[in-house]
Design goal:
The protein is an alpha/beta fold. The protein has a domain at 55-208 and 440-456: ATPase, nucleotide binding domain (Nucleotidyltransferase, domain 5, 2-Layer Sandwich). The protein has 16 helices and 13 strands. α2 (22-40) crosses α13, α7 packs across α9 and α9 (290-306) crosses α11 (333-340). The structure holds adenosine-5'-diphosphate.
């Protein structure tokens, strides 16, 4: 494994370009803090990249909430309809069904999207015997795209992300579009709250742990929300009653959309961005989340392969490469998790992944290099997300802060949590205790909690 020391130098160079030092992270934290201030101030909000939208959610649940509430969860890979039965005393019963959003609807006209959501809701309610009960059920709509909220049940989409691009929805009130579709089908449900998935995650976690003050998503995309004091929210247009706080949906995926993260971006990040459906947008997200991580790894592997630094034996045997590595999306983010579960020198999982993508009989070096790439890319993502959380934890200034986290990347990647915690220990003020808690089914449950509290005060 000492064959080509000069080749290893080249690989080392690629790996070095992915490294972000602690000093760089501290610098990035300062930039993020500046961008947050810009988003919160009325004078600069319009141009700001990190939008810092006030959500109109002021109270966190206290565990006494009761009732049957519906929730729709749209914002990523799956669309879900949920029925949540809050029984009080921390008890929650949940029934849900996953529906597919066909690609044609994701990029078609908005009216077909909302009609589809209403049809799925109807089918679910029919099965749960909720149709024709004489009751109208409150519904929380988890809609995880950047929205400017104008009230709890009123929000304008500012732009699509994560592969959606339905026509006629940007700038429209998505609660109204949903409610119109629900009414058109004569369904007995009323959307009383629009909830971002980060907010749902925070709320669901707070139901069990009152020190929760941050919600984080690490799935198809990445985003965070946190509890901010009203005196720091210049854009706040609601009342100043107690509690003098509001949950801010940061939309932090857009951090860096003004080139301020260029110092840490690589040519692979640029390539991922340019071939995406939203070039120049969601720069922070594209360095972190599940939708892009596998693609970054693929581009690095492909680069090394084309420089003849990888899979040499494979090419010798078969003359040509026949592998999805040449195709966009040909290396899944879940492969990154699989490759990183290997410890030691057998690389049985890594070999399985490589075989899956048509690389038969990879050498020990091939496996070691592929694993090294995966580790560097996922570690970089974890450190960037960790630095973002450190900014929030330091800013909240409480002695104990719990972060509710949801998303498959966090859930299934074998080291993501550990890598985040490690970097946060260096970046969070020494007198603050923090913990990351997986928020199971957070976004749906949390939306129901917001809807339940909202419905009580209607
Ligand atoms: P969403 O964010 O769309 O609501 P998820 O939280 O399930 O849904 O996130 C989906 C993303 O998680 C996809 O981009 C997928 O690549 C990624 N993912 C799925 N399984 C894994 C895994 N085992 N390890 C890492 N990432 C994964």
């Amino acid at each position: 494994h000492h064959r080509h020391p000069e080749l290893n130098d080249q690989i080392e160079k690629v790996m070095d370009s992915l490294k972000i030092t602690d000093d760089q992270l501290v610098h990035i934290m300062h930039i993020l803090e500046e961008e947050m201030t810009a988003g919160l101030s009325p004078a600069t909000h319009k141009q700001a990249t990190v939008k810092m939208f006030p959500t109109y959610v002021r109270n966190i649940p206290n565990g006494t909430e009761v009732g049957k509430v519906l929730a729709l969860d749209l914002g990523g890979t799956n669309f879900r309809v949920l029925l949540i039965d809050l029984r009080g005393n921390d008890k929650v019963e949940l029934t849900s069904k996953i529906f597919v959003i066909p690609q044609s609807i994701m990029i078609g006209d908005g009216k077909y999207l909302f009609r589809h959501l209403a049809e799925c809701l109807y089918e679910f309610m029919l099965k749960e015997n909720l149709i024709h009960t004489g009751l109208c059920y409150p519904l929380g709509f988890t809609f995880s795209f950047p929205c400017k909220q104008e009230g709890l049940a009123s929000a304008r989409l500012t732009g699509w992300t994560k592969g959606f691009s339905c026509a006629g929805v940007v700038n429209q009130d998505v609660v109204k579009l949903l409610q119109d579709a629900i009414n058109e089908k004569g369904i007995n449900a009323k959307c009383v709250a629009l909830v971002n998935d980060t907010v749902g995650t925070l709320m669901a976690c707070a139901y069990k742990d009152p020190s929760t003050a941050i919600g984080l998503i690490l799935g198809t995309g990445t985003n965070a929300c946190y509890i901010e004091s009203l005196d720091k929210v210049g854009t706040w247009d609601g009342d100043y009653d107690e509690p003098k706080q509001v949950i801010i949906n940061m939309e932090w995926g857009a951090f860096g959309d003004n080139d301020r993260l260029n110092l840490i971006r690589t040519k692979y990040d640029e390539e991922v961005d340019l071939s995406s459906i939203n070039p120049g947008k969601q720069i922070f997200e594209k360095m972190i989340s599940g939708m892009y991580m596998g693609e970054i790894v693929r581009l690095i592997i492909l680069d090394l392969l084309q420089q003849e630094l990888l899979f040499l034996g494979h090419r010798d045997t078969y003359g040509d490469y026949k592998t999805p590595l040449y195709d966009r999306g040909g290396f899944y983010t879940k492969f990154v998790s699989t490759v990183e579960t290997d410890e030691g020198i057998k690389f049985s999982n890594t070999r399985r992944v490589l075989e899956d993508i048509g690389i038969r009989n990879p050498t020990y070096d091939d496996c070691a290099i592929v694993q090294h790439i995966c580790r560097q890319v996922s570690k970089r993502a974890a450190r960037l997300a960790g630095a973002g959380l450190a900014v929030l934890i330091n800013r909240i200034g409480k002695s104990e802060v719990t972060v509710g986290v949801d998303g498959s990347l966090y859930r299934y990647h074998p080291r993501f949590k550990r890598n985040m915690e490690r970097c946060m220990e260096a970046l969070v003020h020494k007198d603050i205790k923090f913990q990351l808690t997986l928020s199971d089914d957070g976004s749906g449950k949390g939306a129901a909690m917001v809807a339940c509290v909202a419905d009580r005060s209607l």
